[in-house]
Description:
The chain has 1 helix and 9 strands. It has 134 residues and is mostly beta strands. A hairpin with a 3-residue loop joins strand 8 and strand 9 (122-125).
Amino acid sequence: MVAADRDYYEAMMALGGPEAAALTFPPYCPERWVPLIGEHIRIGRRSTSRALFPEIDLSAPPEDPGVSHIHAVLLAQPDGTWVLVDPGSTNGTSVNGATDPIPLNVPVPVGDGDRIHVGAWTTITLFLEGENRR
Length: 134
């Protein structure tokens, strides 16, 4: 489930940064559900000119300006679990409210109920119980 997360946004704004003052939380941003189908699920913003089409496309309005084109990737493991990798996003990726981002290019195990934070306000909550959704 992809959602605008006010708590995450407020935590990011408290950290400051050169662009923080210009960012405002979107007044309307409905939750979206994206199935985890395939061996890898890219999280980012579509770019037709660069031929980038992430499976979790965060370019729809209201576009989170802190999300890189390929911000993070979920990788299916042979045992049915998932790991999260940040291949080098500009603003980092964190999990479950952590203030420190995950290390670049280091697989981090994630599971049911984990929250992936990207950009200025986007939180992706994993719902993996039940059937293998790959």
